[in-house]
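Worked problem 6 (solution included).
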Amino acid sequence: MRTSTYTPGFAVAQTISEFLNQELRRPWLWLFLLTCACPLEMIFGAPETGKEPPPNIIVILADDLGYSDLGCYGGEIETPNIDSLAAGGVKCTQLYNSARCCPSRASLMTGLYPSQAGIGDFTTNKPHPTRGPGYIGRLNEECVTIAEALKPAGYGCYYVGKWHLHEETGPIKRGFDEFYGFTRGHSHDQYDKEYYIRLPEGRKMEIDPPAEDYYATDVFNDYALEFIKQGQQSKKPWFLFLGHSSPHFPVQAPAERADKYFETYLRGWDALRSERYERLKKIGLVQGSQWQLTPRSLVPVDRDDIANGYSGEPNPAWDSLDDDRQHDLARRMAVFAAMVEGVDRGVGRITDHLKETGELENTLILFLSDNGACYEWGPYGFDGRSRLGTTTLRTGDELREIGGRGTHQSYGSGWANLGNTPFRLYKHFTHEGGISTPFIAHWPAGFQNSDEWMRQSAHVMDIMPTILDAAGAKYPEKLEGRKRPPLEGTSLLPALRGERLPERSIGFDHQAAHALRKGDWKIVWSKRMPHEIKWELYDLSSDRCEMNDLAEEYPERVKAMAEEWETWARRVGVIWEDPNPQSSTSPEDSPKIAQRELTINVTIESKNPRGVALAQGGNQHGYALHFIDGRPTFDVRVNGEVTRLQMEQAVSGRVELTARLTANMMSLSIKGRMSVSCPSPGLIPTQPLDRMSVGSDDRTAAGDYEAPNTFQGKVLEHNVTVSSRN
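Solution. The predicted structure is:
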């Protein structure tokens, strides 16, 4: 006999067990259990909360678009779709960039100053070891991209077009889910299909036109729509960055698209600048005497062939050019206009799709340019990938070849001056023509459209905090366990809604062009100009176009603002305190070379020496000891002009080089081997701002070469001896 112990609980459990064994076979019970196990919103849908979902976000960045090229900013180029965004949103008059494409993109993408993100001036595969962390030439590991901040908030992130933040830190590595475009270089042939890539690797090409029909701007627009649709299908909020390479050189567009603009631009930049200025007044952007149409801008100081014979002189009057030159230039600008129109066409396709799918109301769209219009290099522009002193004059039937497959033209400084109407100067510079960008914000669910222009100063570093504010996303203090630098930018949503932003200072630096904006006051340090370079001072509240330099009238203000710029520059890494002062010195510690005779000794070692071994100064005054294909070369620059002394024979191995400069003579010698000399341009007249650097010329070029220019080899020793002042 088996004895069992009885408890009431056991009896209940046994009863339930028997019941389940029978009833689990019945379908109704499974539905009951599923209902108990799952939240009700998974079965019946989430309850209404009354809270708007986070917006979708689109940033559209044009490349080298001038301040007034858009129709809604006074231009004659047809941009009806961008104009429609502006009419339904907010237009800004004072959004600043960082003077050039990749620094601006680094700042926009991270909410920091360019040097804080690692791209203080340009991308590079060979950063100079003494320039500091702000100049590694790629996004650093400390910064956070917009995509990296939006992903934790549930966003899908998509990128189309030009990356230009270095291929080693490409979009997929920095938070984006999908990419189509190019990660190498600043520009490329629009017709070269094989250059453009789809990432992550292994992704199928959703859009794959035949090579003979390929045109990058159109395909970028196609992929923007494709990724928007993928974002919509994901049922998550999405972020699209559309980084066009148009209208950056090479200016290229199908001939039939450019034809419509040819007659317009035959009228010339002088007439069209005046007409733009009048339209700027009519649309209310220009108000009163604060804005004055500037004279034709100077062509920067450069080699005469590069500057088309106008180095340091104003762009020529249109009527001074012969008919053939006018026709060639008009066709170049017509192609540029067709590129801008191609960007606008894509904006129209995007907004039409968002309207059709009911998502336009809650999509934040931001449109802007990465810098002012590009002057490279003179009023006639250039031809060819080298961009060095090669400008072809086309006539007759050859005109329609401009902008075709395999061509590589720019449109030149005269048209860039038109693009930046009414401002002075261009991309590369920190005057208003170089750092002012058109900026349009459109988000019907987030803020109302305004007929008034938003006239508060802002910067591209404000784009990221604006996006995070709109999305309700947090900027991570730490990412992947590492502490991140705090945002430098500020959200512009209050300003876009009509509120005032707190006053602040904004600093600028690009390859020896400096500026500081503090309230309505701005100081500017220029470069590559034929006149003396010094701090200029402008009151932008009454002189937005920088026509009246007040530096002599307010020297104490200049001094205080220059000191503030210096403090800012050191804080953000523009001025880098080199731990090895023998390699690179600050301006204060560099040899005092003004009005002094110089003896320069450098010992190098290299199998094939190339690049700058030692340099001091920049594109106004200075010297450089460098090597061209192994040939020792001594350049002395006075008032922007370079006098060159070069040995005929290439050298290699260990070389002890001595250069001398007197008021009458330049000489260059190699210990125990050879010596050459020539008349000198005189002593260097003033102390250069650019510091002495060893193994590179990393600011503006002291010699006749492009900077930055790094030595290929080792600099073993160097010494500069200066005479006592006469």
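Discussion: The first strand starts at residue 56 and ends at 62.
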